[in-house]
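Quarterly update from the structural biology core.
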Amino acid sequence: MKLSSERSEIVVIGGGLSGICASLIAARQGRLVCLIEKEPILGGKVGKDQRFPLDEFNSLPQVYQRDSGLINEIWHLLFQRNTEGTFIGQARVFQDWLLSEKRIKIFFDTELESVRFEKGRILSVVGYNRKLDFRAAFQGKYFLDCTGSGRIAELSGLDGEKGVDRNELNDTKSLHPEFDEVYGGCYITIERGEGTYPFACPSWVKLKWEDNHLVPRVNLMKSLENDLAGEHLIEWQGISTNKEMDSNELAFAAWDFLKNRSPICKLAENLRLCHITKNICPPLSFRCQGDRKLSLKDLTDGEKFDDSVAVGKSPVRQNFSQISSTQEKSRLMQPFELPLSSMLSKACKNLLWAGSSAFATELTSRSLGSSSCSSQMGTVIGLVAALSVEKNRLPRTLAKEGYVDELRRRLSRINHQCSLRYIEDADNLALSASVGASSTLSDWSEATGGIVQEVETNHCQFQFPVTSYHIETLQVWLTAADQQELSFKLLEGAGYQNSLPGLCIYSEIVKQKGGNNQLTLDLGLEINYQGWCFLEVGSDKPFRVPLVSDGPVGYVLHDKLLSRSKGHARKLQGFQPVTSRTPIPSGAPKVKVTPTPQVYGPQNVANPFFKPNSLPQLWISKATDFQYPEFIEFEWNNLQDISCIEVSFDPSYDFIYPNSPTSMEVANFQSLVRDYRIYATGDDSKSELIVEVTDNQLPFVSHTFDPFQAKGIELEIRSTHGLNRAQVYQLRVYS
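Predicted structure, tokenized:
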């Protein structure tokens, strides 16, 4: 068969989130990219087969946990273009996003077959296109393994690890029978027919459903309880004569049980098995040797790295199960750092990897395969490869002290979080400017919006920001019965970004007076930290908390969890935030603190932060109909040389995309600025319009200019995508 040739500067293998982000960032640096994907559509783990969530609602306890950076561009595309809310629609959006960059060429249905590796470098990889029946040799300067399985390194014959380490959990084999078991999973589609359809199990099906682990058997019956027809997940954990599970055999074993031996045999007589997917159980990754091997301890202890270039979030695994039914996960209380040295091959100069292909222990690699880690690591290796071409430097050089600081600065300029620590941006001229605004939201308790929800509970927490070291009084809005006893505890923020309930500094039991929906606590307290505080309220009887529409960043109700089911990692010690599951701003509880916190002032826009941390960290204007624009002004004492202005608007960081593709009623975050202008003021105090944008769709925008001089910059907000306030996190100015 003839071998064609494809040349580019960067070859990316794998069309999941890491491969998509790597390709996009490399192309935006001016590099030519070939993306090879073995399936006919994009998505990888978040695609139609494996169906991992694009973001995990329960991955961290922090409310404002959603990743910033490149991945933040995808949400409005999903809202607008995946109107059907399907995995096919999602894959189409991914493809649209990629092809918006002209330097990317995608090769679908192309399976990686071989790697040509010589003298410490990959010269080319060969892929076979099943659909068109041709082979191509892909040549490039750098190769990025975004397969999630370490396929490139394995085919190159490089040293590495594959499989589980029995000592990784410091436990004995007897406690982990899953070492000797086989795993598999698939989706089946069941339809109702007009007649009855007996089923005789084929002789080649050796599995017996009753030999399966109890949990996947129970889960199937629960799924069938909702509706016998439709799509159902079938999983297997048990003994099998086959080392690799065949999805057809697994599906027929389950179907044999349902049709012939289950308690619902009679109900299943008119059911037909219409479709079986491929095995969706992820394979064990080959983890090639790098300079730094990540362990579970690194993740759980929040290890800091000198070459940290990304921050990930994911629960950590507590057993070796490969199926969702029997996986045990432990939530972490904060995200973790990801060092560049775990993404670079030790023996191959031009190989980088992301996600679960990184150099790590087996269970750690499964955490690194999360959507958050994969997208963040993909962004990093895409930029590293592009800079290596641009500067004619090896990736290992860019990981060294001095070079890695420049890499982090480049990543920070796209709002990519590189570390748990603050990264100084000495080039940002806005930090030295004086800042003013047209108006500022000062007291949220005076909001006049309507009530969008009343939460009935008997135990909850109010989260709110405090910007002084003294609280005189605290007033909350809730409805309780006459003479109902309510217990109050005021908790200081603790932990990562002071975002978790910590030390109790005040407690009181109060009897509510009938007909009064406001309750005031006279505190007279000194507090230790400016930042988040939590008021915990409990009672033997239920009470109601009203949530007002269009709540500002920072005011959150956490309701008591009704269930202790696995996976509720976003809870605060048994509580879960009541936040919007759509791009519409969350409703917020009304809380009045005296003295009034100065939370949303314009000075926030000139600080180093582009999303909430220990405080909301944004400017919010007063409510307006935008008949007259809202604005922020930056002024310097002297003329400044300016060639770039970057703005971070508010994309509702408390919103977490649902676990599966979903149709949204609105086309973008309503808090996002839609129309704006930027003016520059010279030494003569005259203003000149330098930017005008209508129908902005992005949370982060960058405007570059031929260098000019100015003593002032004004950002004028003319409309949003629905919210009646202007909300801006940061404006950066560079010479």
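The chain has four domains: 3-163+284-412, 173-276, 429-440+600-734, 444-594.
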